[in-house]
Amino acid sequence: PDGYLRYAVWSWIQDLSTQLRGVLATQRILEGVGVGRPGATALSAMLNFLVRDGCGMAATLLFTASAASQFQSDVKRWRLFGDIMVDIGITLEVAATQVPQEWFLPFICVGNICKAMCGVAAGSVSGAINLFWAAKGTDISDISAKFGAQHTVTASLGLVFAALFAKSISSVNSKQVWFLYTGLTVLHLIANMRCMRIIAFNTLNTERMRMLFQEFWEQRSDEESNETIQLSSPRELASREPLFFLPKIGRQNQQGPKVLFGVPFNDVVDTDSTK
């Protein structure tokens, strides 16, 4: 489909950056549980991993129960939410060995909780993204197969780069490691933002409807203009719609009436006056 190659390239970049940072996080976790340290036991390491994995499983269940119904209406922002959470999770794991020993387990547990939330959010919206590409001239099975093959190739290349990366960072100091890690994290976010900008959904959610209503009322309020009202296309909306959950600052000054979208009927109608 048109645009899929660009999407695949940016997706490959963000996958690779995550794998490289994951290598660094794994290295730090192994150091934290005592690999290579005299007196460390396998039982202690196993208990740390059990607690960490248990926290991740609990977070998966709780986050799914609380947010599952919201994913479909805001695919892009939930996808970016997942990316931010995995960045936070990996960062906590990398930093776990640089805090006092009693904080090591809480750091890796919270890090795994963040990664679990990413898995739920990203996994839930991936179906909608695949359906978008399938609607552009192919079928969902073809897109799913290509997506799986793409991740297989990325993982294979990632193993090679990860091995070289792990060997190279073993001889650099902590400041250089954090500088490299920050660069990979920024690259990861930029790549994901580029992926989401390429996707132009032809359906409306709260934000896209708000943007269209805003355009409509701005053009309608211009009494001197007799031109036909022209609203943005899906591609134009995709280039401007918000990708992050940010505070709604300045919305109260928008032109036009207040629009309530996706709320119960009783919230917008005075039931007493209709009797």
From TrEMBL:
Q: Where is this protein chiefly located?
A: membrane
Q: Which UniProt keywords apply?
A: Membrane, Transmembrane, Transmembrane helix
A GO cellular component annotation in the UniProt record:
membrane
Compartments where located: Membrane
InterPro entries referenced in this protein's UniProt entry, alphabetically:
RUS_fam, UVB_sens_RUS_dom
Q: Which residues form the Protein root UVB sensitive/RUS domain?
A: 2-219
* UniProt family annotation: Belongs to the RUS1 family.
Protein name as annotated = Protein root UVB sensitive/RUS domain-containing protein
Could you tell me which species this protein originates from?
Entomoneis paludosa
